[in-house]
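Q: Fold this one first, please.
A: Sequence and structure below.
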Amino acid sequence: MMRSLRLALAAAAVWGASAIPFVSSVKVGDKLPSAELHSGFPPQKVDLATYTANKSVIIVGLPVPSYVQLQDELHKTAGIDEIIVYCVNDGAVMKAWADDMGVENAGAGEEGRITLLGDPDGTLTKKLEMEMTHPGPASKGIIGRCKRFAVYAVNGEVKYVAISEAEGDPAGDDDPSATLAGQMMASILSLQKDEL
C-alpha cells in the first residue's frame, strides 16, 4: 500500500494531479476480471482473465499509436508479452482499425504483440470502473465509452494503473501522457527495479 501511495505521489509531482494513477476501482493487487471481449468477425469470444493468465500484459483503453511504435521495445526492455488494446466497440471495428493502422496478427491468439479487442456491451469497462461518465461536449458522444487508461498486469494481477483525465478534460485529450507507451514503459521499469 505504501509503495502504491509513493508512486501516486511521484506521479502527481511529475504529471500533475490530473493524471494520478490508482484513482479507479481497479487497483494494484487486484486480479483482472473475467469479462468477455470480441476478436474479429465473426467474433471470437475471449475471456480477459483466462487470456491474460501466465502473461505480462499492458491493457490499453486507448491511445494506440505510441504502443504500435514501441511494441518491440516494450517486449525487449520491459518483458511485455502482449499489448491488449480495447474499446467499447465490436470485434469487426477493432479488426478494421488494426488493418487501417497496419497492425498485423492483431487477433486474439495470433502471433502479434498487439491485440485489438472489442468490448461491445461495455462489460470490461464497467467491471474496471473505467466508464466515461462525464457528459463532455454533446458532439463528442463520450458517455459509456472507456476512459483513456493503461493497466500493467502480470499473470492477471494488476501491478500499475494510469488514467489520463482532468477537470475540463475528462477524455484526456489535452494531456494523454500518463497512458502513452513511453510513460508506461518508464513506470513499469521503475516498478521492476523496485521489486528487485
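Q: Good. Now the second chain.
A: Here it is, same layout.
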Amino acid sequence: MSKRNVTYIKPEEPAFLKRIKEQVGYTEGPTVDTKRENLNPVEPEDLEDTIDEQPTVVVLQPGDLTAEEAAAVNKQRNEEDQTPADLTKPIVFKAKSKNKGDEEVDLLNKSKRPLAAKKNKSKKVKTSLLSFNQKEDDEEDENN
C-alpha cells in the first residue's frame, strides 16, 4: 500500500470573527509548525540551580547529613564524574549492601520455610478439577 500525504488547509476566517478578535486583542496560539522551530541554545548558567532552587536540608537525628556535608558529597561525586575512566583496570561491581533489619528478616524466613514445607507434605488434600464432581466424591468418601 502506498503512503498517502494528508494535508490540512485552514479555511478563511469569517470577517465578523476577525473584527471581534481585533477588538479583544486576541493573538493566535502556537501551531504545529512552532514545534519544528529551533530553540535558543541552553547556557550553562541556566542548568545550574540557584540558591533559591536548592533543596531544604532538615536534620532530625544526629548522623543525618547537614547542608555542608551534602555539598561536600556532591562535590566529590562531580569530581569522580569528571575524571576519565582507567580502561586498563578490570571492571569490578560492588555487591549490594544489606541493612541489619533485612538480615534478621531473612533469618526468620529461612527458619520458617522448612516447617511450612513439612506441614504441606503431611496434609493430603483431595482436589477435583470440576466442581460438579465434588458432591459425588463426598458421597463416595462417606460410603467407604
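Q: Anything worth noting on the second one?
A: The chain has a mean pLDDT of 77.
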